Amino acid sequence: MAANFDTLTAAQIAAGIAAGDFTAREVTQASLDAIAAREDAVQAFLQVSPELALATADRIDTDRAAGKPLPPLAGVPLAIKDNMNLVGTRTTCASRMLGNYESVYTATCVQRMLDAGCVPVGKANMDEFAFGSSTESSAFHPTNNPWDTDRIPGGSSGGSAAAVAAGEVPLALGSDTGGSIRQPAALCGVVGLKPTYGAVSRYGVVAFGSSLDQVGPFGRTVEDVALAMNALVGAGRDPYDGTSQDCAVDFCEHLNDSIEGRRVGIIPAFMEAEGLTPEVRAAVEGAAKQLEAQGAQLVEVDLPHLDAAIAAYYVIGPAEAFSNLARFDGIRYGYQEPDCPNLDTQSSLSRAHGFGAEAKRRQLLGAYLLSSGVYDKYYYAAQKARTLITADYAAAYEKCDVILMPSSPRTAWKHGEISDPTQMYLSDLYTISINIAGNGGVSVPLGLGAESHLPVAALVGPAFKDRTLLMFARALERGFADAATGAPALTVAPDFAGKGGELA
After folding, report:
1. Which of 338, 371, 386 corresponds to the end of one domain?
2. Which residues are catalytic?
3. What is the pLDDT of residues 297-326, one digit of tens each?
């Protein structure tokens, strides 16, 4: 009797393959079938790699038939954000500048997921060079939110979040510079973790803001995200990334521990911030009550310099982006303007025509902020604000284990609804400060908004204790699970459940 692939978690898929309930090829084909059936509506992928995926699956099945031990995520389909290199695929960063760039090596984070047994089914869409909060700045096409395809999935990792929410894959990788994992996870109703800065190697990931970027997983459940983190950090620090730290712990070991007696920080002023919708506020207040019902103690904490986070971010981020994107000169690789009389003209026109509007805007802002006479006034001030914000979080975590706040001030908006860049930037109001401080954060689905009937989520953010973070995330997941089945609050978006992707 056929079963729907999209009802299975990554943990269930890996266990089923290990037990012989189905093969890795069957699971991979089900994922590819789901993508074929759903992509016209979702548009989550920029490239699907069936030959690479099926070859990987066949190797897993061969190993199992030979009696070899299987890795922990053997046969689990994986989507990869298209700013991460993987040999055999293009890495375009959703930009015309890199539209035909073939990966010449594989990013450490991707390789570790492959070493854990994951099957790479394709590269997910994103905002161009990760500049955006809606996946509308992709040079190729926008991605649609599976819960309402007239709406955005969030960004910049919108393709990764949408692929999981649409049931095309159970796991995906994204990157988070100012909220680009947590915000789309919230808007698409999936679990998304931004680990502590340095926990996951950035080697092989095209840089946006080098002091802010961090790679993390999306999954259908907190357990799936914990298994992905085991894969990402299990081999210890990466010598190819100077910021990489040794965070090799078992993220599943204490996942289901009780939170009784633990402390959850609440920031009352943040719950009255401009732009926070009533349904999101109500959901987060419900999350606080749910944690309290499980024995946690709610304590008020203060982050007095948090108002400076967005201003500091939009100085530090563009400055680092300008530096990182200077390498795309239209000469060595990437888009090249034809028929230019000299290298200066070729470089100028290649950059003018290869980058989209938001990529240009951020680089121009970065160039201005790093210019003589401006650098001292703004960049130094932003770094001072960063120090104060980091200290605020450190002081808050002396009073609590985690902090509860929204992942996004609102649910998903319609395509084209926000055209003012500054209004788009404000959608990261609740996420940016954690990148500034380097802490971890997770977005956990809390059900549907009472008015919009779109996914709502809360973010829990501790300081450099991502295993504790996931323990609280699991507590929230338990609290909002279906009372009859124990299933998480949200699974695959209903319009896509069961369409294609059947396992024989």
Report:
1. 386
2. 81, 156, 180
3. 999 999 999 999 999 999 999 999 999 999
